[in-house]
């Protein structure tokens, strides 16, 4: 057992690997807050989270001013207690997305430290359900991409062994969305999974009509068809639509997931460790979903989520969107469409420290030490 003596904060800004557009926004950058925790034995854990272009500076101030100083002197193995104490410390003013993103960077660092001290990879320490999980790709399905390119990317992914492809929907008319999905199904046949994602772009009436228009194509799911806080709308749509409803990337609390699951508003759970507050609450959501016989298919962060999907019994897919290549020494190991969880102790991300130093934003480099 060892107490935390040092917390180092930093942030890097990563440009998207490709142009990324959906029904409501563009992914302009990945602001990546990072937390490095050192304990009294000299063990080090590194964690991170992300934004899609706004809010990074607010996350860093919350970490520096309110959360990271509270870690000094804490027992590093008491991950559950630390998570709840930090959440409570901010509950009166900043609970929500900013808090969850900040908590995620701390919590993943604590899990990295815990796994390294135990000499185990995350997927084993967190449950050890299986060593690999199937991938589907989103990177070739953005809303601006023309139909021939959508089909070409999906055919190439299938050739590599990928299980499915996600296509963004939310064009001005149903006919445009239908044309995109019909071309995919015609080219790929009935066995390849096609996921769709509306990114909260529809009103309730539009969502029902769009789901009905897409009924013939045997979709794996329709993702975020409505605003994330419209639980009643998702309940109604889940009852009316033939395809599964997927939610999760825009939910920031275990309790939000509990409401969706209990009311039957979603049948695919896309909990995101970077947005739910880290690995600690991610596992709670995954196990809660298992109790309702629901699969977990997390959003984004494939380099981290591969280990979590492999940790739990109901982990189904890893979403392929590469983003950390420029700041890591090794990428995600994918073979015949299967993403393999890293076997190295820790969360399994081999950071390139020279690249991190070169890309770090100076104003956010903060070092908090015991007795400093």
UniProtKB/TrEMBL annotation:
GO molecular function, one term: hydro-lyase activity
Database matches in PANTHER family: ENOLASE SUPERFAMILY, MANDELATE RACEMASE, MITOCHONDRIAL ENOLASE SUPERFAMILY MEMBER 1
InterPro entries, per database record: Enolase-like_C_sf, Enolase-like_N, Enolase_C-like, Mandel_Rmase/mucon_lact_enz_CS, Mandelate_racemase_C, Mandelate_racemase_N_dom, RHMD-like
Protein name per its UniProtKB record: Mandelate racemase/muconate lactonizing enzyme family protein
Keyword Nucleotide-binding carried by entry: no
Cofactor(s) listed: Mg(2+)
GO BP field: amino acid catabolic process; carbohydrate catabolic process
Pfam families: MR_MLE_C, MR_MLE_N
Gene3D superfamilies: Enolase-like C-terminal domain, Enolase-like, N-terminal domain
UniProt xrefs under CDD domains: MR_like (cd03316)
SUPFAM superfamilies noted in UniProt: Enolase C-terminal domain-like, Enolase N-terminal domain-like
All copies of domain Mandelate racemase/muconate lactonizing enzyme C-terminal, residue ranges: 147-244
Record keywords, A-Z: Magnesium, Metal-binding
């Amino acid at each position: 057992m060892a107490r935390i003596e040092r917390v180092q904060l930093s942030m890097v800004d990563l440009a998207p690997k490709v142009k990324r557009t959906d029904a409501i926004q563009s992914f302009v950058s990945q602001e990546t807050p990072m937390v490095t925790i050192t304990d009294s034995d000299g063990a080090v854990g590194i964690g991170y989270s992300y934004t899609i272009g706004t809010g990074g500076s607010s996350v860093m101030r919350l970490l520096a001013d309110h959360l990271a100083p509270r870690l000094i002197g804490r027992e590093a193995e008491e991950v559950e207690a630390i998570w709840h104490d930090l959440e409570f410390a901010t509950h009166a003013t900043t609970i929500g997305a900013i808090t969850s993103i900040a908590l995620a960077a701390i919590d993943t660092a604590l899990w990295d430290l815990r796994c390294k001290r135990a000499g185990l990879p995350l997927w084993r320490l967190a449950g050890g359900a299986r060593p690999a999980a199937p991938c589907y790709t989103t990177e070739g399905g953005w809303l601006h991409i023309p139909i021939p390119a959508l089909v070409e990317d999906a055919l190439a992914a299938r050739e590599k062994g990928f299980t499915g492809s996600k296509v963004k929907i939310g064009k001005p008319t149903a006919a445009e969305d239908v044309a995109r999905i019909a071309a995919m199904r015609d080219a790929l046949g009935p066995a390849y999974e096609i996921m769709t994602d509306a990114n909260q772009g529809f009103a309730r009436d539009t969502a029902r009509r769009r789901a009905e228009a897409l009924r013939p194509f045997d979709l794996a799911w329709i993702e975020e068809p409505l605003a994330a806080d419209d639980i009643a709308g998702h309940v109604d749509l889940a009852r009316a639509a033939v395809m599964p409803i997927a939610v999760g990337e825009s939910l920031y609390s275990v309790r939000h997931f509990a409401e969706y699951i209990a009311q039957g508003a979603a049948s695919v759970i896309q909990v995101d460790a970077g947005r739910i507050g880290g690995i600690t609450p991610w596992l709670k959501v995954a196990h809660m979903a298992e109790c309702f016989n629901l699969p977990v298919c997390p959003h984004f962060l494939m380099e981290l989520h591969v280990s979590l999907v492999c940790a739990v019994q109901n982990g189904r897919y890893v979403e392929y969107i590469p983003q950390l290549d420029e700041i890591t020494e090794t990428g995600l190991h994918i073979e015949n469409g299967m993403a393999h969880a890293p076997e190295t102790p820790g969360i399994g991300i081999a950071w390139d420290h020279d690249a991190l130093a070169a890309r770090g934003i100076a104003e956010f480099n903060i070092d908090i030490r015991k007795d400093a």
